[in-house]
Amino acid sequence: MVQQEVRKGPWTEQEDFKLVSFVGLFGDRRWDFIAKVNRTGKSCRLRWVNYLHPGLKRGKMTPQEERLVLELHSKWGNRSPWWSRIARKLPGRTDNEIKNYWRTLMRKKAQEKKRGEAASSSPTPSSVDSSISSNNHAVDPHASKKAGEESFYDTGGDNGVIAATQDQGQKGDQQGLFSMDDIWKDIDNMSEENNTTLQPVSVYDGHSEEGCNFSCPPQVPSPSSWEYSSSDPLWVMDEESLFCPLSEEPYFSCYAQGTVFLTG
DNA sequence: AAAACAAGCAACCGCCTCTAA
DNA sequence: GTTAGAGGCGGTTGCTTGTTT
Q: What GO MF terms are annotated (predicted)?
């Protein structure tokens, strides 16, 4: 893919907007295509998967999730790709999140162990370590967190959810009639000219050509202010079942619902 | 109030696998 | 059957924010 200049570092709102728009248009497979945001395809994919995907659940891991991570890790060990496998079992959580969580947990354990050794009287470290290598629920990493601490990203807020609008998909339907430059121009115009509240985006379902129905959000607010429906059963693609655990809905149909709820 | 430290998280890198030509 | 490019993954780094001294 020809790129003028590959940007690195933190993503801007403009870039996020473009990325969301293009995923809406082309689905989340054609990263080389989408990479026109002056980012590499890899970078685009990562940003989408770890940050912009509508099914993401933000905020702290729940005790249940933490327990599940420990359980699955004890079950699968460190065999690759365990981050992503575990992530698939945790709707709305990314492998990067799991990875970071695990890393933090390990660091805590290491520190506790150090402290324990220093004190040489505390029995805690050994029990903690065994809990990780064996199937053990005794560990409660959550205990180290402050009570009542809420993440800025926590879902479940009542900001309201904007229903998907019709009138989408004209562009997608006529995708073949537009050159890429036209599409880019349109998106650029929209992102620059409109400063109203964010509109919902219907995400390309990734499986049908007709699925390219979306309306470009006039403006992308800081992603941190986005609210996603925490009950949205997206993001689960269990290799064994391909079903959402909560809803029993097939993954594809979950994803095909495709409406991204973004609020400003 | 300021500095030092710690924790959390976003993003990049390099390697490996998959797929299409 | 081969090869190049794209995607996926785990590891790692560095910045930001929160906490402690």
A: DNA-binding transcription factor activity; sequence-specific DNA binding
Cβ(A177)–Cβ(A92) below 8 Å: no
Chain C: nucleotides below 7 Å from protein CB are 5-13, 19
Q: CB of residue A157 closer than 7 A to nucleic acid strand C?
A: no
Token pair in block for residue A253: 């149909």
Strands (E), A102-204: 201-202
Residue written as token pair 């065994």: A130
Shared domain check, A208 and A240:
yes
Residue A19, amino acid:
L
Asked if residue A193 and residue A241 are part of one domain, the reply reads yes
Position A100 pLDDT exceeds 80: yes
Mean pLDDT to the nearest integer, A37-48: 82
Asked whether residue A112 is assigned to any structural domain, the reply reads yes
For chain A, the farthest-separated pair of C-alpha atoms sits apart, in whole angstroms, at 74
Domain edge (last residue) among A113, A144, A175: A144
- CB-based contact A43:A5 (threshold 8 Å): no
| Residue A92 contacts residue A154 (beta carbons within 8 Å) | no
- CA A67 – CA A89 distance, rounded (Å): 12
Length A194 CA → C5 C1' (Å): 37
Does the CB of A3 fall within 7 Å of any strand C atom? no
The DSSP bridge partners found for residue A201 are A260
* A121 CA → C9 C1’, Å: 41
* Cis geometry, peptide bond prior to residue A91 (ω within 30 degrees of 0): no
Q: How confident is the model at residue A171 (pLDDT cuts 50, 70, 90)?
A: very low
Q: Of A109, A144, A179, at which residue does a domain stop? A: A144
Q: Please report whether residue A150 resides in a domain.
A: no
Contact A264, A225 (CB under 8 A): yes
- List the domain range (segments joined by +) for residue A29: 13-57+158-260
